[in-house]
Design a protein that fits this description.
The chain is mostly helical and 217 residues long. Helix content is 72%, strand content 0%.
Amino acid sequence: MIIPAGHSIFPFIPNFSRLFSENDVMIFINAAFLLILFVLAMWIVLKCGETPSEAKMIPALVIYAAVSASILLRFGPSLEAVKGMILGAILLWASLSDLKSLNVPDFVIAALLILSFVGFEPSELPSMILGAIALFVPQCVVSKLCKDRSIGGADIKISSALGFMLGLEKGLFASIAGLSAGIITMFVVRKIKKESGREPFALVPFLSAGAMLAFMI
């Protein structure tokens, strides 16, 4: 019996050559390579650098790998995907630092500002500037008026830098989503643990989650 070209010998086994072209396979291989490369790079940074917490390294890498995989599925192996994975790495470091010391090094802000110009279009600059101002000014006012310092300097710097990178609309979305998630989460956690609501908490991880969500929209 002669089997026609492109048909499987066993009809119950799907013919994967029809499902995936050679170009699709190469895109998948490139994406997988990028994912492995960036996870490895992040592991080196966390292992060789002054890591905020050794115990949090494995969960952090798992989260980073999941976020990177989502970015690759969203953008494919492109410059935008590389930018997103670098952004994820920077925000992961900032989150770990904030969880440990409620502080974020200034080089993180510088890295975010530099990354903002990757794939930059001049027409986006007004929105980027407005995004930074719209997040910086209100938070500074709240920080000055509130004696308990409910919003820290690191939170203001991170959110302002993200507003510059993402632009006005996405920057506001990231900030509102992150602040809402942080406030609701900590309210529930403190109610369960019966803790006082006046102690400061790490807000950068929530802002980072909002930023990554805004980046992928």
